[in-house]
Design goal:
It is a single chain. It contains 17 helices and four strands. By secondary structure, it is mostly helical. Strands 1-4 form a two-stranded antiparallel ribbon. The chain starts with a helix and ends with a helix.
Amino acid sequence: MGSLGIYFMSLFKCPETVTKKLEAIRARFFWGASYEKGGLNVGSLQAFNIALLQKWRWRYLVHPGDLWVSVIQAIHGNRFDKVNVSSHSTWSTLVTTCNDSVSNGFLPNDAFFTKVGNGSSVRFWFDTWCGNSSLFTRFNRLFHLDLNQQDTIANKWCNGEWVWTWSRSNLGGRNSVLFEELKSLVSQFHAVDRDDYWTFSISSDGLFSVKVARDYIDHIMLPSSSVATIWFKFIPRKVNIFLWRLSRDALPLHWNLSAKGIDISSIVCPVCNNGIENVDHLFFSCSVAKEIWIKIRVWLNCNMPSFGSWESFLSWIEGSFSNNVVLFAVKKKMNNTTSKDTRAVYKSDV
């Protein structure tokens, strides 16, 4: 069942209303930004959808000789960025979504970049091979004057120099300036004896990855918090999530429920019946919490100060971890006790 959504999003653009509804449901529990941006590193569904569709672009470019590519080109034309079909077709919607992700700034123009070898498979005007956009986009006026607009680089590079075929001998003042810019831009090119190949500029190894594309889009698309998420790899995931909710005062405590308009009979702490049940009281000021903190200090044999709020505890824990104070205390305690003794310590102390 879990793969049904992936199958759908890898072929079709997910409707915006559906994506927003799913994101809204998930946002009740988790915030899907990276750790650095204050989230739980849960990717956006919209970014996932775009990344899956972009994989078709990669396949189309990297495997031009495949049968399905030939069928697509026969029906829709041989340019991925421009299709000659109605906007209601599946392929047209896929291509439009891929192109929109670039125009909207989710991916850079040179995300799919051609490394030129002999130039036999790279189109001079349409493919991105010189700079961060195609020459068709940057020199559109010259493109329309070219008699051989579909030429590859190898067609225009003969015997170590460029061969130009313009529709008129006198290009005119403005076109002449553009032509000089074009010649200067491509002057550093030299053909080499190897095949051309495509690379995904965002990835470190140059190969397309849905995860890399999704993470990149998430970084641009998702909002950020002023406080980064602290994630400890050596403690259970559910504990990390609990601490994340605690740091954002998102626990269902009486004070928080009352602030949201929920009818609560009392906002007094049900543990000690003394003080309002909020984060600072329940975890630091409550008489039971203070007893637990005393036992934690004894168990760790650590010179830990008293805390009155989450902010003071967080400030201390960040400094302690940077100096390995807590890590050293825990490691020392675990080395001096067996697994059975450790479970007994937890049980008796709590």
